[in-house]
Each structure stands twice: as C-alpha cells, then as structure tokens.
Amino acid sequence: MEIRHVDAVAVRRDLDERFANAQKWIDSREYCLVRVESSDGTVGWGECWGPVAGNRELVDEWVAPWLRGQDPREVERIHDDLVFRLRSAFHSYVPASVVSGVDIALWDLRGKLAGEPVGRLLGGRRRDSVRAYATGHFFTDCDDFSTLRERVVEEARGHVDAGFDALKNKIGLARHFPWGREEDVELVRAIREAVGDDVRLMSDANHAYDAADARWVADRLADLDVHFFEEPMPPEQFDAYGRVNAAADVPLAAGESWAFTEEFDRAADAGAVDIVQPDVTSAGGLTSARRVADAAAARGLRCLPHVFGTPVALAASLQLLSTLPGEPMLEFDRTSNPIRRRLVSDPIDNDGNGVPVPEGPGLGIEVDPDAVEEFRVGEAGR
Ligand SMILES: [Mg+2]
C-alpha cells in the first residue's frame, strides 16, 4: 500500500454580509483542502488553516513529491518526519497548517483503509454525540452600540431556540468601533440577561487586550458566570497570560494560535490557561492535537478544541472529541458559510445541544465532488 496522489484543493466563496471579530473583518471563506489517494484508489481529505496562498504551493510543490510512494498507514511517523523536514527547510518556522492538512488526510485515509472511524484508531470512543456550543455573535457593520447589542442578543436567543445551552460571543470592539471594554462587558451582560442563568456562556477577545484590561474584563466576566475567557491577549504573551490566569476567577482559554506539543508545554509551564484549545487544522493535525490533549489531561488542564472550518475540520474534531476524557464540548460555528453547509453529502448538524459523531470509516464524511468543483478556485490539480 502506498500513496499515489497528493493534491491541494483550494475552495472559496464570498459572503453576502461581512462580519468581524477583534482581529479582522471576514468577507469570504476560503480553505486549502488536502486530497491524498492511495494505490488502491482510497481517498483521504484534510484541511489546512489559513489562506490558500502558501498552503497550496507547499502541499503541491514540496510535500507531494516527498509523500508519494510512502505507506499511508504510517501517519505519526510521516507527521514527525514532515515536521523535521519543514524545520530544516524554514529554520525559524514550521508551517503547521501544512502539516495539519496532510496529517488529517492521512488519518482519514488510514481509517478508511482499516474500515474504522478515526476515533477508534485514536484510542477509542467514549461518546457518540458531543455537547456543542454555538460560536457566533460576531460584530456587524453598525453605527450605534445599542443596535449591535440588539443584533447579538437576537442571535443568542435564536441559538437557544435551536437547542443550544452553551454559547460563545465575541468581545474586543475597540479595533473596529469607537467603543471599548465597558461595551464589551455590556454585550456579555445583555446576552446573560436575555438567555438566563442556565445557559453556559463563553467570551472570546481574539487578542484584544493588554494584561491590565484583560484583568479588568476577567473580573466582570466572572461576575456574569462566564465559563471561560478566550484569548484575552496575543498568544505569544505566555507570562502575561500566567499572571492574568492566576489572578482571575474566570478560567482563561487559548490554543487556536499555538502549534505542536512544545508550544502547549510552554503555555502549561507558564500557567497561561486552564483550558487548551488546539485546532486540528493548525496545531499539527490530529496527531498533534491528540498529543496536546493527552499532555493537558496529565497536567489537570481541559482540552476543548478550536473549530472554525469546513466539514473536514468539523468531522476531524468530532473524531478527536469522541475520545477525550471528561465532558468536552464541540465548538460549533454558526456563522454564514456556504462551503460548510454544502461540501459533504450529509451535513453535520446539531441534534438539540449535541452533535453526533460521524459513524463511517475515516473521518466519517463523504466529500461531494460536485460541491468541490462548485467552490474550487485556481487550476484543477494544483
Ligand atoms: Mg477564538
């Protein structure tokens, strides 16, 4: 058994209405998928975090020639060899999104070749459905704060009506609007008042604050019984995270911007967070995300993976979540995304407050070739 074809598949779609978090306005969704085919014609799909540019060229021109001819069942060996080779090539930086896309595709392929869902190969399923929290409540174009607050509250009510009992909202308005930390807290308070005390709330600042503002906001989020406070500061500020986390009554969470076990170890050493959030498309794939989850559990930290991608990322995350100890939650992106809705023949949806783990072999999804062609950009085969 050997790998015959490796291709980057770029998909993209403009959105009708843009939205923002504290980092950026989002007016399109684009992804670099990875398609790996073995010598018997079995196909595995993976997904890289970030823009198509860079990911596509590395997969097609650098990874593919090296990967062809290797045994697709040796996923962790390939993961580690690829990291080693990329470090040699780039010295100060390993493009973790590329490792991730390739690694997820190989796990999908390995599962399909074995006739087993990936969760079973990752150590065994503990659950068939994962409690989900609705991610949304982004910022929209708006001139006055009360209108923005009303939109966010209306969205929160809609998620609760759809069966969710856990929600995550965005804070960090100051980058885009003439409002600041007071309005950030006011958004959370308005959601809390609208949905009541029985709904679990989380807040995500996407690096908006310095340590002083992070502490100020953390105190107020704790008063509103917020379950975790995500990425208050830029992710490389491990020491500041450690100080704020030690002082705060709300647990800090971060990890979507960290990759590989070494970076998560550094965060754990600094006491940066109580909750780690590896993203399978950027942390180094399922191989690294599982290692991060194991290390977190050994140090008393909770692992709640970050998810903001296509059904490939969603299914891979569900496979990992099916294996984690405790009571993990799925991040379930509710923003507008035609690709997420249509890329697979059987869309992944919530059933009340949970999302079922796909049952089939590999990631358990069937990527629809017609949908791929509909969303595909750039040269076919590139
Ligand atoms: Mg986040």
What does the model show?
- The structure is a single chain.
- With 382 residues, this protein is an alpha/beta fold.
- The protein contains 13 helices and twelve strands.
- It has two domains: 3-121 and 367-375, Enolase-like, N-terminal domain (Enolase-like, domain 1); 125-356, Enolase-like C-terminal domain (TIM Barrel).
- 41% of the residues lie in helices and 20% in strands.
- Strands 4, 5, 6, 7, 8, 9, 10, 11 and 12 form a nine-stranded mixed β-sheet that branches. It has a three-stranded antiparallel β-sheet with strand order 1-2-3.
- α3 (96-114) crosses α10.
- The longest helix is centred in the N-terminal third of the chain and has 19 residues, at 96-114.
- It is globular, with a radius of gyration of 20 Å.
- The model has no long low-confidence stretch (mean pLDDT 97).
- Bound molecules: magnesium ion.
Let me know the average pLDDT: 97
Number of helices: 13
Low-confidence region ranges: none
Rg (CA only): 20 Å
Give the distance, in angstroms, between the N- and C-terminal Cα atoms. 24 Å
| CATH H-level superfamily title of the largest domain | Enolase-like C-terminal domain
* Attached small molecules: magnesium ion
Based on secondary structure, the structural category is alpha/beta
Shape: globular
Short summary:
Residues 149-251 form the Mandelate racemase/muconate lactonizing enzyme C-terminal domain. The protein has helices at 52-67, 75-90, 96-114, 118-121, 145-161, 181-195, 211-223, 238-247, 260-269, 285-298, 311-321, 338-342, 369-375, and strands spanning 3-20, 25-38, 43-48, 129-135, 166-170, 200-204, 226-230, 252-254, 275-276, 302-303, 329-333, 354-356.
